[in-house]
TrEMBL record:
Pfam families: GFO_IDH_MocA, GFO_IDH_MocA_C3. Residues 2-118 form the Gfo/Idh/MocA-like oxidoreductase N-terminal domain. This is Predicted dehydrogenase. Residues 155-216 form the GFO/IDH/MocA-like oxidoreductase domain. InterPro entries: Gfo/Idh/MocA-like_OxRdtase_N, Gfo/Idh/MocA_Oxidoreductases, GFO_IDH_MocA-like_dom, NAD(P)-bd_dom_sf. SUPFAM superfamilies: Glyceraldehyde-3-phosphate dehydrogenase-like, C-terminal domain, NAD(P)-binding Rossmann-fold domains. GO terms for molecular function: nucleotide binding. The lineage of its organism: Bacteria, Pseudomonadati, Bacteroidota, Flavobacteriia, Flavobacteriales. It comes from the Bacteria. It comes from Flavobacterium haoranii.
Length: 322
């Protein structure tokens, strides 16, 4: 069983602590939080061991789970890696692409594994259809959230949109060709609403919208490809796959048939997979344990996290030019 420690005991850090404590693949050793009042409260309330320094926690574990504010991700990751510890690091991987690339290089140098917490990759609605998404040519995503002061210190692109950027990059097997984006800062110093058009070298286009001042929550993606339309509702954890095939010569009474101007007939049918309930955060943490134990590649690699961050900054730079 892998010994694990958590850096950061804020809102998400406490969720990680609870799940790691429940996991059969980890032994939760304890946590470190720089805010003494919060650290003492969490330790007293839940019984987790509180470490006095980052170094002491790192020395006591095999895996360091970094759930600190983004600005400190790099320093925490470097200290853990140089101590020979595997790292799970919350999204975004770091504050800059240059820092993220240094993390990748150090992990390779010290022979440790790393995974980035892009949790939507483990959303059951997405995992149920991921293998059915083949060469999509148009993607549309909407990630809208009701206002929450937590997270407004960073642009909505790094706060929310980066989830969809990572999911898109995981299914589009092509390099980004260009980005055109716009955003509006409504109540924050950085954009609260953003839209980006991402064009890939293979011709795929992704239209991505995020807002953190919406009247309702929404997390939906739609993937369009030849002979198929796939929708994913990350929030309600449901998905839909609509496919087309050549129509039978003698359609049934309830067959849905489309005919184009040339007389070509296609039959529409539904191929909706079973969505199995899960805890996506627990899954991402436990699959990382599997990757360490089996010496296999993590599902969301440090490189994946870096590419998502790279595209996010391309979007931010495009907005700043407007």
């Amino acid at each position: 069983m892998l010994k694990v420690g958590v850096l950061g005991a804020g809102h998400l850090g406490k969720i990680h602590l609870r799940l790691l404590n429940q996991s059969s693949k980890y032994e939760l050793v304890g946590f470190y939080d720089p805010f003494e009042e919060n650290a003492t409260k969490v330790s007293n309330e839940f019984g987790y061991k509180k470490f006095d320094t980052i170094a002491e926690l790192i020395a006591a574990v095999d895996v360091v789970d970094i759930v600190t504010p983004t600005l400190s991700h790099f320093d925490c990751a470097v200290e853990a890696i140089k101590a020979g510890k595997h790292i799970f690091i919350e999204k975004p991987i770091s504050n800059t692409v240059a820092e993220a690339e240094k993390i990748i290089a150090l992990a390779k140098e010290y022979g440790v594994k790393g995974q980035v917490g892009h949790v939507e990759r483990f959303n059951p609605a997405f995992t149920a259809v991921k293998d059915k998404i083949e060469n999509p040519m148009f993607i549309e995503t909407h990630r809208l959230a009701e206002f929450n002061p937590r997270g407004t210190d960073v642009p909505v692109v790094l706060d929310l949109m980066i989830h969809d950027i990572d999911a898109i990059l995981s299914v589009v097997k092509s390099k980004v060709k260009s980005v055109n984006a716009s955003g509006v800062a409504v109540i924050s110093d950085s954009p609260d609403i953003a839209n980006a058009r991402i064009e890939f070298e293979n011709g795929c286009v992704a239209n991505v919208t995020s807002s953190r001042i919406s009247m309702k929550n929404m997390r939906k993606s739609r993937f369009f490809q030849k002979d198929a339309y796939i929708s994913v509702d990350y929030l309600d954890k449901i998905c839909e796959v609509v496919k087309m095939k050549d129509a039978p010569e003698v359609p049934g009474d309830f067959d849905m048939i489309l005919q184009n101007a040339e007389g070509l007939k296609k039959q529409i049918y539904f191929d909706n997979p079973q969505v199995s309930a899960n805890n996506a955060i627990l899954d991402e943490l436990e699959t990382f344990a599997d990757a360490i134990n089996n010496n296999s590649t993590p599902i969301v690699t440090l490189q994946d996290g870096t590419e998502a961050l790279r595209v996010a900054y391309m979007i931010i730079e495009s907005m700043e030019k407007k």
